[in-house]
Amino acid sequence: RKRSVAKTEFQEEAMNEVKVIASFLRQICLGEMRKAEAGDSDEYFCLVAKVRASEENTYYIHKPFKIKEFFYEKDEQYLAKCAWLLAQEEKVELYFCVASIGVGQNEYGFYSVDRRKSNTRNVRCLFTDLDLTDELKLLSDEELFDRFQEEYSEFIRLFDPVVVKSGNGIHVYVPTDDMRIYSEEDRDQYECYLEELVQLFLPWGSDFHCADAVRILRVPLSYNRKKEPIKVKILRNSESRQSMEYVVHYLDMQNRGGMDELCQEVSDSIFFDEEEYTENREEDGAFEGFVKIT
User: Fold this and answer.
1) C-alpha to C-alpha distance for 242 and 227, rounded to whole angstroms
2) CB under 8 Å, gap of 24 or more: what pairs does 186-193 form?
């Protein structure tokens, strides 16, 4: 009976974690999903498992999931269960690609689903990876987050970011309206936006290498296994979504000074009105062929 109770408790805990992972993936990267019609969607969400077979031998497994398959909660839960199960493997570190990716031609002339910049299809957040200074690494999670809130209080108040402790660093995400990547110019523009976010967090160890549309980041509740296993934690969650235009405008002004005169303007209008945005885009026919995920 004790074993049965323990098993039940484990199952409940596991399902709770699966729901957290599913909610996180929906907010950060699944985006507006195309209808499941023949030929209408070539978008994929990509999980990446880093397997440490030994100290000398590490390899990566890329697992793409067709986004058009994830219209229903049960499908989203299935993806999250896959992520959770992979995360429990002793030698596995689990990552996800922030951008959706598509089918493209590789250097050998074959068409495949590869996590390469030319295959970028859609992004719905701005993000950066903070490696943290040696001083910050000495702080507990609570002390670290308190310091972060203190130093970036204005940014947090305006943009309600998701903050994840990745083990020895911090990932910061600002969920935004979707940005479709139709060309190399679109992708370069998005990476310029990421560079603006990197610049804001330079005092906390951000790196311009993070300004990569197909960057992979650790899945929450998976494990960082570089040394002793450390569970990846969500320090701050958010269900809000911002206008990418306003976020970038703020970052541009903040990184170049002259922030005082902008603060009130941004504060009054910064939060992305999803209902108004949806109505406007429906009038323009922008949702033809799309399913809105709320």
Assistant:
1) 36
2) 187/117, 187/120, 187/213, 190/123, 193/126, 193/244, 193/247, 193/248, 193/251
Judge contact between 165 and 137, C-beta under 8 A.
no
- The enclosing H or E element of 126 equals strand 120-130
Model confidence pLDDT, tens digit, residues 153-194? 999 999 999 999 998 899 999 999 888 888 899 999 999 999
Q: For the segment 219-273, what is each residue's pLDDT rounded down to a tens digit?
A: 999 988 888 888 999 999 988 888 888 898 888 888 776 444 444 444 444 444 4
How many angstroms separate the CA atoms of 166 and 169, rounded? 5
The total of other beta-carbon atoms located within 10 Å of residue 255's CB is 15
Residue 201 carries which side chain, given as an amino acid letter? F
Check if the beta carbon of residue 112 is closer than 8 Å to that of residue 106: yes
Rounded-to-integer distance, Cα 38 and Cα 45, Å: 18
Termini Cα distance of the chain: 41
DSSP β-ladder status, 216-218 and 162-165? unpaired
H-helix segments, the chain: 2-25, 73-88, 134-137, 141-151, 153-159, 184-200, 244-256, 260-269, 274-283
Nearest to 49 by CA among 39, 69, 31, 64: 64
Return d(Cα 190, Cα 248) in angstroms, integer: 10
CA atoms within 13 A on the CB side of 118: 9
Q: Which two tokens stand for residue 71?
A: 């219209």
